[in-house]
Every structure is written in structure tokens, then in C-alpha cells.
Write a structure and sequence with these properties.
Strand content: 5-15%
Number of helices: 7
CATH architecture: 3-Layer(aba) Sandwich
Strand order of the largest sheet: 1-2-3
Helix content: 40-55%
CATH class: Alpha Beta
Shape: globular
Number of strands: 3
Structural class: alpha/beta
CATH topology: Rossmann fold
Order of helices and strands: HHEHEHEHHH
């Protein structure tokens, strides 16, 4: 039996992009090969972290890698349940652009686990995603 491998999938997705197209590639956490291949030639990277020691550890590795290859990036903090001081300090010290924050909400997990479309189930979250999108557009166009 053949196991699925992420690298050929990433390559196939990237091969279908034409100049000027917006491509969104969801990469796994951490800095393993699929993440590196997904982001190394990206115009902008959106990192998503959770306010936990584990999330901060992965974020530090990703930020270090992105800085080493000079890729611009922003951050979305997911499953936030109040401020996590080590994360806030790291973000501040490294002048990381926070694109948005999504509060921890078990209703989100329930909707997604049932295969439902989040904004159909919880339309009040639309404002959070619009804020992230607006901040992302501003970050990308501010670089031009």
C-alpha cells in the first residue's frame, strides 16, 4: 500500500498557479519539509499559532526560518483564551504583525468536526475573518 506524501501534492498545487493568482497552501505546523516547501517561494506567509508553550515553540522555529529566507509574514492567534504572556512578549520583541485573533470556542470545534461550514453555523465570526483579510491585504500592499 502506498502512503500519501505531501511533497508531490504541494508541487502539483504550485504547478497550477499562473502569474498573479492567489494561492493558499495549508502547511503542517513546525518546520518540517512540507512547511519549508510550501513557504520558501511564497510572497507572504500567514502563520497560525495557539497561545501555548507548544505553539510558541513551533512559532519561534517558523519565524526564525522565515527571517533567514527573508519572507514576509503575519500571525493569526487561534484558540485564544486570554493573553499568554510568553507569546505576547515574543510577538512584541520580534515586531510580529498580528493579523487577527480567534477566541477559543468549542462551538467552532463542534461545527468543523461535523463537516459544517463555520460561517454558516457561526456567522458572528465573519467579522474576525474580515479583519484578518483586511490586515493581510494591508500588509501585502504596504510592501509594494
Amino acid at each position: 500500500m502506498r502512503e500519501p506524501r505531501p511533497m508531490p501534492v504541494i508541487e502539483a498545487v504550485k504547478s497550477h498557479c499562473k502569474g498573479g493568482d492567489v494561492q493558499i497552501i495549508d502547511a503542517p505546523p513546525g518546520t518540517a519539509c512540507p512547511f519549508v516547501r510550501s513557504v520558501y517561494d511564497s510572497d507572504f506567509v500567514v502563520l497560525v499559532t495557539e497561545p501555548t508553550p507548544f505553539g510558541l515553540h513551533d512559532l519561534e522555529k517558523c519565524v526564525s526560518f522565515l527571517k533567514s529566507i527573508k519572507r514576509p509574514f503575519g500571525l493569526v492567534i487561534n484558540k485564544e483564551r486570554g493573553k499568554f504572556p510568553p507569546l505576547e512578549e515574543y510577538v512584541s520583541q520580534n515586531q510580529i504583525l498580528v493579523l487577527g485573533r480567534i477566541q477559543e470556542d468549542l462551538r467552532i470545534a463542534k461545527a468543523l468536526s461535523e463537516g459544517k461550514i463555520l460561517l454558516n453555523e457561526l456567522p458572528e465570526y465573519r467579522v474576525h475573518f474580515e479583519e484578518i483579510f483586511s490586515n493581510l491585504k494591508r500588509a501585502i500592499h504596504g510592501r509594494s
